[in-house]
Write a structure and sequence with these properties.
The protein is of the alpha/beta class and about 250 residues long. It contains 10 helices and 10 strands. Helices cover about 40% and strands about 25% of the residues. The chain is globular, with a radius of gyration of 17 Å.
Length: about 250
């Protein structure tokens, strides 16, 4: 194993004691070994910090930072991005899972093709029940992504050596899409891998809260992307339609 990680994995946590062990274990089970897991905890009041500290004591690739005050998922993700040492930066929330070949397949694809920003298919799940598969388009550019986020955060990976260590806008929700749009200003396309390589949990608080994200989507268009009212309304209509289609899968 090389001393320098190839992939830096960004994981925010907040009161995630019920799910985070399984999420971390899905990283530990990766066939690809050259990674670091950068967990930033946002002042959890349950057993989350004790759990992640136990993992870090056993495996030095698991690195923990606790925020000095509660600051939101975007801030926590940025704390991890700023500490990253890997060529690639990937994302996994504390309630989602990766399949064992996730990193090996995605890194291999990026090394082989030279793609600097990729995402993969994923499958929804609840405790004990598998849901629908989300198969993304083969590629997406900036204007296409404005119509609806086809990039699952748990599947995204970008080349920090080429694009730089880009961080997320500091908004409470939709900060991941804000980062994808920023990256797509730096490269022509993000490339989709049709293989299911991750599992997205839909019965946790983190996922359920995303159902009320419409007002944050509007803020993203207006405050982060800087769209005028007409363009904002146009893309918001696309977002609403595409979101409904995605939700029904």
């Amino acid at each position: 194993m090389l001393s320098k990680p190839v992939v830096s994995i960004v994981m925010p946590s907040f009161n995630s004691a019920k799910t985070i062990s399984e999420s971390i274990e899905s990283v530990l089970k990766q066939e690809f070994l050259q990674w670091e897991l950068l967990i930033t905890d946002d002042c959890s009041v349950d057993e989350t910090v004790n759990i992640i500290n136990k993992f870090s004591e056993v495996d030095s690739r698991v690195k923990v930072l606790v925020n000095s005050k509660n600051s939101g998922a975007g801030f926590s993700r940025n704390q991890s991005i700023n500490r990253a040492k890997g060529k690639y930066i990937a994302f996994l929330d504390a309630d989602d899972l990766w399949l064992p070949n996730k990193l090996s397949s995605q890194v291999s694809y990026m090394e082989r093709t030279g793609a600097v920003f990729t995402y993969t298919a994923y499958q929804k799940f609840t405790e004990g029940c598998m849901g629908g598969k989300i198969i993304p388009p083969s590629r997406v550019n900036h204007n296409q992504l404005l119509k609806g986020c086809v990039i699952g955060c748990l599947t995204a990976m970008y080349n920090a050596e080429v694009l730089g260590q880009q961080t997320m806008p500091l908004i409470r929700k939709r900060q991941d899409m804000g980062l994808w749009l920023k990256l797509l200003k730096l490269c022509d396309y993000a490339h989709g891998i049709p293989e299911v390589l991750a599992l997205y949990r839909t019965d946790s608080g983190m996922s359920q809260n995303k159902l009320n994200a419409a007002r944050y989507q509007w803020r993203l268009y207006r405050d982060v992307v800087g769209l005028n009212l007409l363009k904002c309304s146009w893309y918001f209509c696309w977002y609403a339609v595409n979101g409904l289609i995605k939700y029904r899968k």
